[in-house]
Amino acid sequence: MASLRARTDEDTAGTAGPLPAVLVAAVCLAVGQGIGRLAVNRSGVDPASHAGLVVQCFAAFVPTLALIGVWTTVRERRPFSSLGFAGAGAARKAALGAGAAVVALLALNAGTSALSDAEGSDQGASPTPGTVVLLLLAFTVQASTEEVLFRGFLLPRMTASRGAAVGVLGSSLLFACAHLANPDAPATYVVMTFMLGCALALWALADGGIWRTCAFHTVWNLLPNITADGSDENASAGFDGATLGVAAAVLAAVVAYAFRSYRRTLVPRA
């Protein structure tokens, strides 16, 4: 943990504090979202279709990533890799993240399928392989940009100034609030997003980087969207009491697993 805290302090030395950093992240995200919505409207595609998702992800999050990259390298005079991409073991951490997402989604699907009516299981047409590749690239950009903003840019500042607990909870709360902009996002969706943010923040602290969180976040967003024609980001809106409990239990297990990973970094090795 000492090396992780030292690396956090080194990466954030001479940079903006938590409140200015929140403002910077909010501006970058707002500009990107504005560009994304404009691009979708001008393209004429259905925003809820696979094509709409691809356009939205690229048009909104590439500018956001570019803006935060310019701020980091030009204004703060530090390398882009300091936003969570430094260090060894990137492939291993990404594989762990992707695997954890697959296991969590399989558990979620099994639990909700067992409790849901069979009549409501219409998944729509499956996307073509080309569409799957485009969605993979689009969600990689979208999820990784969010990880850079909330776990690579904001989390280290909050942790360095207020401690790990405030860093995890504060960055996760901002992550959840940012998703309030999603159309018709119910309160349960925001709460689940907060829980997901806590798990991702704990993994980021445990790893000293965001390779694992980028992979988990990408797979978590991708797989539900290749099972039906349309956005599934607000899937919790369709949960009833029983299936909502399953979703909450799965996310609680993910948070517990991430906390275990974080706790292991606090125990000195012989």
Automatic annotation (TrEMBL):
InterPro entries: Rce1/LyrA-like_dom. Keywords: Hydrolase, Membrane, Metalloprotease, Protease, Transmembrane, Transmembrane helix. Pfam families: Rce1-like (PF02517). The keyword Membrane applies. This is CPBP family intramembrane metalloprotease. The keyword Protease applies. Residues 130-223 form the CAAX prenyl protease 2/Lysostaphin resistance protein A-like domain. The chain crosses the membrane at residues 20-40, 52-74, 94-112, 163-181, 188-206, 241-259. GO terms for molecular function: metallopeptidase activity. Coiled coil: none annotated. The lineage of its organism: Bacteria, Bacillati, Actinomycetota, Actinomycetes, Kitasatosporales.
